[in-house]
Amino acid sequence: MYQLLKQILVTGIKTEPYPQADEALRVAAGRLRAEILESFAGALTIRHVDAGSCNGCELEINSLNNPYYNLEGLGIKFVASPRHADLLLVTGPVSRHMEVALKRTYDATPEPKLVVAIGDCGCTGGIFGESYASCGRVSNVIPVDVAVPGCPPTPVAIMQGILTAISLSKT
Amino acid sequence: MKLEDFQFELRQLPGAVAAWHGRVDAQQWRTACQQVRDKGGRLVALWGTDDHDRGEAFAVHAALVVQSGLLVTTMSLDGLSFPDISDIFPAANRMQRAIYDLFGVNAENAADRRKWLRHAAWPADVFPLRKDFVTHHLPGATGNGEADNYPFVRVGGEGVHEIPVGPVHAGTIEPGHFRFSIVGEGILRLEERLAYKHKGIEKRFEGMTLAEGVRLAGRVSGDSTVAYSWAYSMAVESMAEITPPPRALWLRALLLERERIANHLGDLGFLGNDAALAFGLAQFLRLKEDCLRTHQALFGHRYLMDVIVPGGIARDLEPAGMERLRREMAALEQTVSLLKSIYDEHAGLQDRFINCGRVSRELADRLGLTGVAARASGQAWDMRVEYPCVPYTELEVRMGSHRNGDVAARVAVRFEEVFESLRLSRLILDRLPLGACATKVPGVPAGRFGVGWIEGWRGEVLVALETGDDGRVARCHPHDPSWQNWPILERAVLGNIVPDFPLINKSFNLSYSGHDL
Question: What is the pLDDT of residue B138?
Fold first, then answer.
């Protein structure tokens, strides 16, 4: 136990400054009213849905909770059910086999809700595109507010995407 | 199993893998498998091709491990069926069902002929990897809301009930469905339903140039991008009959060991977390992040995507980068040693790890467990040791292994492998040859066949590649070790309680994307 406590003290606090929202990532302008966004800020819950990714984006979403990015420090946390979520973080081209599950997850998320598509595949279908097995981009299946490109996008870019979704549209 | 014992002609494939290719008839197809199995060999991969466009028929191919290396057998089919080999290699079961879903050719008399890769995205009488398959006959981009209707095996009896889990899981993990049959908390049966992520990767490869294909290969399973891009490049280099410069090969091994270290660090953190030691997750993810940042600085990508390309590597390592790696690895080794002693002495953690999700040595052998999980179940088998390619031929890898086959053993092997990969990385840096880091890849003639075979962090990754008339990809089959290990997870959980499933599952950490294709 001594070693464990000592290691915590030696490690110290690693969290780095948080990034700002980035308007360039916004797809749909201002779907939610200012007072709702205000109540999301500081207490946002996220349900992640992998709709067919290569699992690269999942690695970076997991990185969001490492001590450097410490997403929970912003009052943003991942929840186990869409029914508890304010925002869906969706990765992948949407495989046809995940299409129904993604729509059901979207429907199970209570209004008002936000959707952030993650990665080149989530934004455009990426290298997998549209095919007999893939519906392509996330917005082909459910409405998307913010899309974050990258293969995979860095944790900072994903954070920016989430923060953009809960900030007021500047346009 | 010696090569001269086989009753058919064999041709050695050029390139870095010790691999032979032979054409067999229906009888030899089974005999060869039986011979390999009897001598303790294994099935690595099984896949189909549609060769009608060059005046032939459907064919099936098996990649088998024999004493001398890899043996690929090819059987051209007379009709729409081939002899079942799932009684010889149980791992063949799902691979044969996948071949049916994609080509419409059946494993004759196989006990289990349920669909596997297909849910409802395309009709039962349409086969996407046939050359005459036309995408536009299918419904539009979306709107096909049909259910899967998969015939799960039902468990009956008093007090038995089912827990369906997924495809959307509670954590940040990939989608798949688990059907538990339980009494109280005890698991009587687990049945997996995968292929939710099937996104048509093999079809996507068709018609790509050999240079374009490596990018897709590197995205079959993102966490194994180095292993896949190396295996793919190896296959191209075999077909083109070229050898990358020594510096490129040594750097590829450095990247592969770095990928192993980064993934094992992540797994060790999550395994601590799944046993309620959040400290472990915070510590190990910090170390992993340090590695990723070094990758970004030295190779331009946090996960090393697109660094390995046919002919060599796309980015050389500067002397300053070598110094940074040495410093980082020294600090990493020290911290991991400390964390290992904390894990080892943490009673609560060990109580969850020990005897949890056990796969006996006999079961692992019978069902064909592979990779890091196999080494934790007494299967002393690591390609870097048994069939080393350059530079492993000069590195003398010390294989990690354990006998108990439980979560604790899979944790122990990961720790061993982190230390060994650090040692190997240091050796590589010390002995890194000078010179160019890539060579030009000439055009590859039509009808060439090549394989790449790499011990990735999860297990052995195989890529089989064939060129078409225009020198482009006619067929590419990437094979993930998860194909072998998913069915064994179903066995590992038996007799355990449902709340231990996440821990057991994590201790295997199998790829959904790499399997679903």
Answer: 60
Assign A42 a pLDDT band (cuts: 50, 70, 90). confident
Q: Give domain status of residue A2, yes or no.
A: no
Do you find a cis peptide bond into B442, omega within 30 degrees of 0?
A: no
Pick the CATH number of B201-516 from 2.60.40.740, 1.10.645.10, 2.30.30.100, 3.90.550.10: 1.10.645.10
Question: What type of residue sits at position A56?
Answer: G
Which residue of chain A comes nearest to B213, CA vs CA? A127
Interchain proximity B199–A78, CB inside 8 Å: no
With b meaning 16 or more CB within 10 Å and e meaning fewer, what string describes A74-107?
A: bebebbeebeebbbbbbbbbbbbbbbbbbeebbe
Tell me whether the omega of the peptide bond preceding residue A112 falls within 30 degrees of 0, making it cis. yes
Q: How many domains does chain A have?
A: 1
Pair A121, A91: CB distance under 8 Å? yes
CATH number for the domain harbouring residue A97: 3.40.50.12280
Q: Look up the pTM and report it.
A: 0.95
- Contact between residue B420 and residue B398 where contact means Cβ atoms under 8 Å apart: yes
* B172/A62 CB distance under 8 A: yes
Rounded distance between C-alpha atoms, residue B366 and residue B387, angstroms: 22
Which CATH class name applies to B3-119? alpha beta
Tokens, residue A136: 């392509």
pLDDT higher than 80, residue A32: no
Q: What pLDDT sits at residue B145?
A: 55
User: CA A88: distance to chain centroid?
Assistant: 6
What distance in Å separates residue A131's CA from the closest CA in chain B? 7
In a domain, A122, yes or no: yes
Residues of the domain holding A154: 15-165
Distance of alpha carbon A116 from alpha carbon A118, whole angstroms: 6
* Residues B313, B305: Cα–Cα separation, whole Å: 11
Query: What residues contact B113, with CB distance under 8 A and at least 6 apart?
Result: B97, B100, B106, B107
Instruction: Determine, yes or no, domain membership for A90.
Output: yes
Alpha-carbon dihedral angle through residues A55, A56, A61, A67, given to the nearest 10 degrees: 120
Cβ count near B351 (within 10 Å):
12
Range(s) within chain B of domains with CATH label 3.30.460.80: 3-119
pLDDT band at A23 (very low <50, low <70, confident <90, very high): confident
Q: Where in chain B is the domain with CATH 1.10.645.10?
A: 201-516
Q: Determine the residue of chain B that is closest to A132 in CA distance.
A: B135
* Low-confidence stretches of chain B (pLDDT beneath 50): 141
Beta carbons of A152 and B303 less than 8 Å apart: yes
Residue A5 covered by a domain:
no
**DSSP label at B199?**
-
**Closest in A3, A54, A68 to B289, CB measured:** A68
> Is the Cα torsion angle B337, B342, B345, B351 positive or negative in sign?
negative
Separation CA B306–CA A132 (nearest Å): 26
Q: pLDDT at residue A111 above 80?
A: yes
Q: What is A92-159 written as a DSSP string?
A: SS-BHHHHHHHHHHHHHSPSS-EEEEEHHHHHH-TTT-B-SSBB-SGGGTS--SEEE-SSSPPHHHHH
